[in-house]
Amino acid sequence: MALKSSTFSLFLFSFLLSTITPSFAHNYPPKHTQKSLRKPCKSMSFYFHDVLYNGKNSKNATSAIVGAPAWANTTIIAGQSHFGDLIIFDDPITMTNDFHSKAVGRAQGLYVYDKKEVFTAWLGFSFVFNSTEHKGTLNFAGADPLMNKTRDISIIGGTGDFFMARGVATLMTDAYEGDVYFRLRADIKLYECW
Ligand SMILES: *[C@@H]1O[C@H](CO)[C@@H](O)[C@H](O)[C@H]1NC(C)=O
Ligand SMILES: *[C@@H]1O[C@H](CO)[C@@H](O)[C@H](O)[C@H]1NC(C)=O
Ligand SMILES: *[C@@H]1O[C@H](CO)[C@@H](O)[C@H](O)[C@H]1NC(C)=O
Ligand SMILES: *[C@@H]1O[C@H](CO)[C@@H](O)[C@H](O)[C@H]1NC(C)=O
Fold it and tell me: Using one digit for the tens of pLDDT, what is the confidence trace for 25-48?
């Protein structure tokens, strides 16, 4: 009797397995990995403005060097492509390229200059939106080879209006003034929207 029921369970199990497995196979790989379906579900463009503290502009600086290599200091950006400098920022995000236009949120996080031979940084930051259009965050991470006219970084998640969002942002240096000010344009394309 015991043997019979376990044989039956085994039969039932393999029967269930054979009915379930094809549906797994059908759903994998996920549909959005198909190239033809790689169209953004949402596209947006913003500017953000970084005013780096340089020993004189503590009033309007939006970023500061908080870590520097032993051969440099946290007042003046280091030589050798700023290698080793760690910068924390809280930059206004605007819809237009005008620094003084109304901010829709803040870009908050850090960048680290990480190559001596050429200007390149690693970015980790959030867009924290606080406007009538958008409330919530988008979280960015990735390498920024900033001598490239455009460079793509990952949008690894989001909250609020951007719950579970993922995508790619194309960054462009829209303007810069010496080592003190730069403005980036971010063309955001989300490929996962909820
Ligand atoms: C920051 O303040 C300085 C001195 O007040 C000013 O010259 C400069 O234009 C300001 N920078 C920006 C980006 O507003
Ligand atoms: C920081 O470094 C710069 C350039 O290397 C130098 O001119 C400046 O005096 C240094 N500042 C401090 C506070 O050490
Ligand atoms: C968001 O904006 C509102 C209205 O301008 C303001 O009262 C609030 O403090 C802001 N919140 C944050 C987190 O900046
Ligand atoms: C940077 O630009 C070069 C040539 O312009 C290109 O080959 C390279 O793929 C770009 N790199 C990134 C990370 O965008």
Answer: 555 555 555 555 679 999 999 999
Question: Does the Cβ of 52 fall within 6 Å of ligand 1?
Answer: no
Which ligand is nearest to the Cα of residue 76, counting in written order? 2
Identify the residue whose C-alpha is closest to ligand 2 atom 8: 76
Ligand 2 pocket test: pick from 73, 77, 85, 179 the residue with the most ligand atoms within 8 Å of its Cβ: 73
Task: Check if CATH label 2.40.480.10 holds for domain 40-192.
Answer: yes
Closest listed ligand to the CA of 176: 1
Find how far residue 26's CA is from the centre of its chain: 32
Digit-coded pLDDT (tens) for 88-106:
999 999 999 999 999 999 9
Determine contact, residues 136/144, Cβ cutoff 8 Å: no
The full DSSP string for 93-119 is EESSS-TTSPEEEEEEEEEEE--SSS-
64 in Cβ contact with 148 (< 8 Å): no
Average pLDDT over residues 12-25: 50
- For the chain, report the end-to-end CA distance as a whole number of angstroms: 52
pLDDT tens, position by position, 175-193: 999 999 999 999 999 999 9
Considering the entire predicted model, what is its pTM? Answer: 0.81
| CA-closest residue to ligand 4 atom 7 | 148
